[in-house]
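Morning - alpha-D-ribofuranose inputs below, output right after.
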Amino acid sequence: MAARVCIVGSINMDLVVRTPRLPAPGQTLMGGPFTRFPGGKGANQAVAAARAGADVSIVGAVGDDEHAASMRRTLEENGVDISQLALREGSATGVALITVDEQGENTIVVAPGANASVGPDDVEAAGDAIRNADVLLMQLEIPLDAVIRAAEVARASHTKVVLNAAPARALPHQLLQLLDVLIVNRGEAAVICGRTDREAPESLARGLKQLGVSDLVITLGSEGALYAGARTIRIPAFLVEPIDTVGAGDAFAGAFAVALAERMPSERALRFASAAGALATTRDGAIPSLPGREEIEQLMS
Ligand code: RIB
């Protein structure tokens, strides 16, 4: 039987323009052609987990606009169960305005739309999807009270709780202690523990543990990734030619959730997730860039 992953998170349509460099404040830049890609950290991680081999369901909300229909179709086509995806009459579906520069780096601004309406009631209504999963995977593009309630429901039924704390914000101890694994990049780690991102990842990991986090992953881009649990593991990055980093963190988180659900040993789980993240940088867009299981295993070997 495939591992089961439940996502509680956001769904966005990504509106993307390629630019020669990232825009500075007050600057108008002429960019390349405009592209629309399905995205949103919740949807991206749902598809990432499905392509990495899990049975996936998603809890969240879309509006009643054309983006909603397109996002629902994309999730369904990727085998994600959308029976717990609410449709909010009169709301817009989340939208992300994205620029990607020539190095593949990006800026992202999200207009949350229906994502902002996801609350504890939606989580209660989807309780069975959370309880029946091996792993609950969440991000921070929906209100925090929904994230906390979902973590409580999962904890009460021995579903493992993974939080990808993006976009970063200070987090209450109540939530941090409910997590089995926290996944962050360096900047997010620094925001959560109130330090600077110039600190060594090992030191940031100690700072997060002092806040009550038991196990955590810090993704380090071209410097690889670090896992800090009962022991600390550091792996190098897979060498690829990045063209667009949008969705790479989501590919990592989705694949890591699958690895955890399949009870892979920590180092293999970290390599599995890193390979997925690396592959996602080699293609344009969020959901279109997410790799399948075979491709991930091929890069690992
Ligand atoms: O992590 C990338 C995602 O962040 C994009 O798809 C965008 O929608 C924002 O949620």
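Note: The two ends are 24 Å apart (CA to CA).

O.
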